[in-house]
Write a structure and sequence with these properties.
Helicase, Ruva Protein, domain 3, Purple Acid Phosphatase, chain A, domain 2, OB fold (Dihydrolipoamide Acetyltransferase, E2P), 3 domains, 12 helices
Length: 514
């Protein structure tokens, strides 16, 4: 069932008579007892119909007793209390600055999906990826030096070549070499990366070992019919730049993976952070920094969602998707009004699962005095002149699994690998993608800041002048993470000072409330 087909994402139901209630549940292959129908009619609560569908599990026959038990369980759930006030002596400098925000429309995926999911749609997607990535590679290596794969048959043995293509196959030969198939619209080339202690073969072999299926690369080598013996692997990569700084005394704070509605949502620490944003703290420690926060970016998984994984309802304290977002908005309303909020979805949010993801609908996230900016995933935003790439980070799972040496403990490393490839989701099939005619996961514009979440672990780097930040989570370790041996780093807030370029890290697991 797609995300927008889940019961929790339905439009609010109008009042129904007996026959309409029965037909509504019949569409979901659920039968109601006569006393259950009468009970629902008396309750006159449209949200109760959604809750029954969310909680029924494998049950196809629902009686009055089931509904009464559901109502009793809901009464026992402690709803979080949200109340944060601004400290009277707090004079934030960020309040004096006018926000400088520009949302780049070419990266706005909201409302798009003009494909039918046919084979031709996927072919067009990969053609677009190949064409646009080739242009990025040409800027690195020069267009005149690239040979066509279709012309290889006419080359003399030993000729030096440079090819650009998509990696469609990669395997280890019986002699320990790496055999790669590189495909373009002109044909397929077989490339051999030799296992050797001599240079440049040794370093080329190491690079080839990290190649991912479906990514587009350039390979230097010599023609040795029927193979190309590789000497180097070249990714589109980022150019080396100096980290950008500005004169304005403002900061960006980064959040992700709040999972509001989960029993594991760390409400106490989150409210400490909200109080800190409002200047409520012991002494002057941190007051100067927090007063300069002008922007907060939230990179997805605002709420825990409904029906994301089997038996999720056992780990929820809020079992209605509307109520989860309502609670999220209550928390967000405590953030000072002069701070601009940029909000993108993640895989737990009520949007389609496949990427690129459109923005969360206004029905779920009501606008907040114009300072709440809801964007798609991924999105590119110009903040104070900083090109800021926001992506939830779902593809990090496949990068960590696909490249030796990657781990969840250091999410900045797989983030850098995505930047090298200039593609947020290079491996087809590991992370669902919508086959649009344009590959929205490519990183054509060189970002100044890249912000991700998803893996629930904080990580930071500066890669060739680009600030890389993973903002961790506000959810404690789940049972699944415990079984996987993954230890999250909850309640750590990264704050980037745009004037100095320094990343400040505030740990609300240790910080005492003011």
């Amino acid at each position: 069932m797609d995300a927008d087909e889940r019961p929790g994402n339905r439009e609010r139901l109008k009042l129904m008579n007996d026959e309409e209630i029965v037909k509504f549940f019949e569409k979901e292959e659920v039968l109601l007892s006569p006393d259950a129908v009468e009970f629902l009619k008396e309750k006159n609560d449209d949200s109760l119909l959604r809750k029954i569908l969310e909680r029924r599990g494998e049950e196809f026959f629902i009686g009055k007793e089931f509904i009464e038990q559901l109502i009793e369980e809901e009464k026992k759930i402690p709803m979080p209390a949200v109340e944060v006030k601004r400290a009277s002596d707090f004079k934030p400098i960020a309040k004096e600055y006018t926000p400088q925000l520009k949302f780049l429309k070419e990266y706005d995926v909201s409302g798009k999906c003009n494909c039918g999911g046919s084979v031709d749609d996927f072919v067009n997607l990969f053609r677009d990826r190949l064409k646009r990535t080739k242009k990025m590679l040409e800027m690195r290596v020069g267009a005149t030096g690239i040979s066509s794969i279709g012309e290889l048959g006419g080359f003399a043995k030993g000729r030096e070549v440079r090819l650009v293509g998509m990696v469609t196959s990669k395997r280890i030969t019986k002699n320990g070499h790496i055999m790669i198939e590189l495909e373009s619209e002109e044909g397929v080339a077989k490339v051999l990366a030799l296992k050797s202690e001599r240079e440049p073969q040794r370093s080329c072999f190491e690079k080839a070992n990290t190649l991912l299926l479906d990514e587009v690369v350039a390979i230097d080598g010599r023609f040795s019919d029927p193979f190309i013996i590789a000497n180097d692997v070249i990714w589109p990569d980022l150019p080396i730049r100096t980290q950008r700084v500005i004169d304005r005394d403002v900061c960006i704070a980064f959040l992700s993976d709040l999972h509001v509605g989960s029993r594991n949502f760390m409400q106490e620490q989150f409210q400490k952070m909200l109080k800190w944003l409002n200047g409520e703290m012991d002494g002057e420690n941190g007051k100067e920094l927090v007063g300069r926060i002008k922007y907060i970016i939230i990179a997805g998984d605002l709420v825990d969602g409904i029906g994301i994984y089997p038996e999720q309802e056992k780990e929820l304290i809020i079992k209605d998707i509307y109520e989860q977002y309502d609670m999220f908005l209550k928390f967000v309303s405590s953030i000072p009004e002069y701070i601009e909020l940029i909000i993108a979805p993640g895989n737990h949010d009520a949007v389609r699962r496949a990427e690129p993801q459109p923005q969360i609908t206004k029905e779920l996230l009501k606008a907040d005095n114009g300072r709440m900016h809801v964007v798609g995933n991924p999105s590119l935003i110009d903040i104070e002149g900083f090109r800021t790439l926001v992506y939830h980070g779902t593809s990090l799972d496949s990068i960590i699994a696909g490249i030796s040496g990657m781990s969840y403990q250091h999410p900045e490393k797989p983030m850098v690998e995505l930047l090298k490839r200039r593609n947020l989701s290079p491996i087809y099939g590991e992370n669902p993608v919508v086959p649009e005619s344009k590959d929205y996961m490519l990183i054509e514009e060189v970002p100044d800041i890249v912000h991700m979440g998803h893996v629930h672990k904080n990580g930071y780097d500066n890669y060739k002048g680009t600030v890389v930040v993973n903002s961790g989570t506000w959810q404690s370790q789940t049972d699944f993470q415990l079984r996987q041996g993954h230890t999250p780093s909850p309640c750590i807030l990264p704050v980037l000072d745009l004037r100095s370029g320094r990343m400040n890290v505030i740990n609300f697991m240790k910080r005492e409330s003011g």
